[in-house]
Amino acid sequence: MASTNRFDSRLALFLAPLAAAASLALVGCAADDVTTLGDEDAVAAEGAAGLGLGARGADVRKVYEYLRRYGYFQNAELAEHYPDWTPAVSREPADPELFDEALEEGVRLYQAQQGLPVTGIVDAETHRIMQMPRCSHPDYYDPPSVVPTLDIENPYTHFGGTWSSTALSYKFANYTSDFAQASVRSAIESALFSWTSISSFSFSEVSSGENISFGFYTGSHGCTGGAFDGSSGVLAHAYSPGSGLGGDVHFDDAESWSSAFLETVALHEVGHALGLGHSTVSNATMYAYYTGTDTQLEDDDRAGIWSRYASYASPSGCGSLNAGQGLSAEQSVWSCDGRFQLKYQSDGNLVLYMGSSPLWATGTNGAGGDRVLMQEDGNLVIYNASGHPVWATNTPGTSNRYANLAVQNDGNVVLYRTGGGVAWASNTCCH
Ligand SMILES: [Zn+2]
Ligand SMILES: [Zn+2]
Which of 124, 227, 290, 429 is most exposed, with minimal Cβ within 10 Å? Predict the structure, then answer.
């Protein structure tokens, strides 16, 4: 819970700036780039740290240019590539080398967006974040046809519309030659799988008519989101849900891709393809900055995807909670003989009953539970409304993928592996 605590401690600091910024239409992006900063873009000079109101010089200009690049000030290139784009700050500094109130407003908005304490000063932490590789699409960009929202209790943001179906198809348009094709496929499919394991999405590969196309390109390749720029710099971009280019994910083939690197970038880009924007939570997959290899979705990513789509399918029939199905409060799965009831109670406890007698329970009452998911990764998990797991069978794994939970006529609740075999049981047999 360390990350949550850290976020909470920051929350009070940026309440006021966020409220002010809400009128500037905070939301996701239309075409999204992950970038490693080039030398010319980094606020690299040590002198930039500690700058505040009244400062002057070349380092002030670097801060201004950095913020301008990411959407805080007038920028003809952004205006050309992003429909209806406007800068986050409505006024320009009178002199790019003078740290005036306009630049201070930009720094404050930048700090709010990155989940930093809002000081208006390029302090050490702000300076450190400015050195890091990041997604190059502008902050505070509100794509057309999207109602701008930013709920300060939910650090994730939305990006464009949503898919009308959660059964999506994908295609590999081509591959990088950096490593084996089979490994390229599995890296990207692992990223897709991470999203399916905590949502109602499913993905199937097709040869044409796909929703999401994954491809590797170099230089100018016909995207309005921008040309790729060679090694480092821009790594990839993705489009929000829609037809045509909608949902498509492009990787810059000038990068030296490896499996874990590709999966990390793909996980972030697929989030955009599903309709998520950037998060202010620094350990979330949807944080704007690339912070190294990380192929795990975090609480905030789960809360984000659940805010846009159902987190699971409801169970149908008796005796089983299948992969991808789940229970919300007061829902149950019954054994087929009707003698046993596995009920997710509104108090957050998952309880197995024989008649009115409890046989087994997770003991999570009062833990703030929100839903139980039989995930496609083989893990049965109780989550709270913030996407934080509060109880789990801890049985995820490749051999457990698409496992199912059986509420048996003998009174035992058993989590079966895909190919048979018991991964977990309540050990309440036999009645
Ligand atoms: Zn991004
Ligand atoms: Zn592209």
Answer: 124
